[in-house]
Amino acid sequence: MEFVSHVIGTYHEIALKGGNRGPFERVLVRNVRAALAGLPVAEISVPSRVVVRFSRPVPWADVRERMGTVFGLNGVIAVDRAGVTYEDLERLVAAMLPAIAARSFAVRCKRGDKRFPLDSQQVAARLGAFVKTASGMSVDLEHPEATIQVLIQTDGIYVYRERVQGPGGLPVGTSGRVLVLLSGGIDSPAAAYMTLKRGTRANYVHFHSGPYTSEASVRKAEEIVRVLNRHQGSSRLFVVPFGELQQEIVRSCPEKLRVVLYRRMMLRAAERVARRSGCRALVTGESLNQVASQTLANLAAIDRVAHLPVLRPLIGLDKQEITAIAERAGTYELSVMPQQDCCSFLQPAKPVTATTHLACLQAERAFNADEWARRVQAEAEVRRVEPASWSRPAPDPFAEPLPCPAL
Predict the structure, then answer these.
(1) What are the DSSP E strand ranges found in 84-225?
(2) What is the pTM (predicted TM-score) of this model?
(3) Order of strands, edge to edge, in the sheet holding 381-385?
């Protein structure tokens, strides 16, 4: 097992913020510290990149996994700190040479500290000559078997061990709060992940068709939220009873309009939940023309009942692209576990592919839509959901009932 005492996190988009960069960096540091909670972090600083120093060596795999959930980080690098002078660099590299089993090498250097007396090319050339003499390896700048990566910052000199891709985006907590309409499928968790990536914090609302369906969909949604919360910390999950309202729509309204009417009622209720919890937008997992309710005409009819922005980060993606995002988010394996949710409950045989707001209003005259929206959101159960533990994989939501702690 490989251990590290220093890790560097790089970022790209934050560096483009100019005079607004400071607040983004402070939130990023806070999020890195939260992701590493429980590990012996001695110091986190931002000379030009995020530098994490541990008080004792820790497993690189643990750090890599945790920092890989921190939006805003473009890369995560395991490094060794040499010191502050070129002579310190040579001493560190000399100690590392016995572990390098290669016939050829190259030296790459990035100098962020322009006060350092040697520029990047001079460091690379001088260190390359030293390594060639000390090891007998030949220099190959095009296709080296080993590459020695040097990073010179204002806080010291570092040598790369390994660099892994970070999630990118902006730090969670820099773009306001949203409410995600979360089903148990693949799409809505992927939409939540993409919205978190843009710096939002998320609460979640799950509509279930109990008592006509089992509690399984609720337990599944809660476990999906636990995995997503690794990116942001704890959140609230609002569990909204929807079965009686669906039965009312089935009794009162044209069959072909059922799904669109379900979605309109979900937006009405979700908007009320959002305002209760300080959310400024709703997020859904819809993708244009993926299913009948997601045609342009139907989406337009659904959106007419919303008075908050409805964000659809997956709108232009196909199923393969959405699945790849779900796998990256860590929610895919949970999402493909079978269960009946409200989206599949009381489905029409032939759903409409193009309706209008006026046609939906005409159908909704058969029941009091606003009163039903107020009722179901008032009956919502609120659960405080903590992030999934790093010490274990996400559990099977069907194995046993899960505790539902109060807010």
Answers:
(1) 104-111, 138-139, 146-153, 156-165, 177-181, 201-208
(2) 0.90
(3) 310-311, 282-283, 177-181, 201-208, 235-241, 381-385
Query: 310, 284 in Cβ contact below 8 A?
Result: yes
Question: How much is the pLDDT for 407?
Answer: 24
Residue 403: its pLDDT value, please? 35
Contact 308, 271 (CB under 8 A): yes
| pLDDT higher than 90, residue 344 | no
pLDDT at 399: 42
Instruction: Report the alpha-carbon distance of residue 294 to residue 10 in Å, rounded.
Output: 38
pLDDT tens profile 360-387: 999 999 999 999 999 999 999 999 999 9
Do residues 212 and 345 make contact, with C-beta atoms less than 8 angstroms apart?
Answer: yes
Tell me the C-alpha distance between 158 and 7, whole Å.
10
Q: Is 135 helix (H, G, I), strand (E, B) or coil?
A: helix
pLDDT on residue 341: 59
Give the residue-averaged pLDDT of 245-274.
95
CB 180 within 8 A of CB 283: yes
Dihedral sign for Cα atoms in the order 356, 358, 361, 365: negative
Tell me how far apart the alpha carbons of residues 81 and 5 are, in angstroms, rounded to a whole number.
Answer: 9
Angstrom distance (rounded) from CA 229 to CA 224: 9
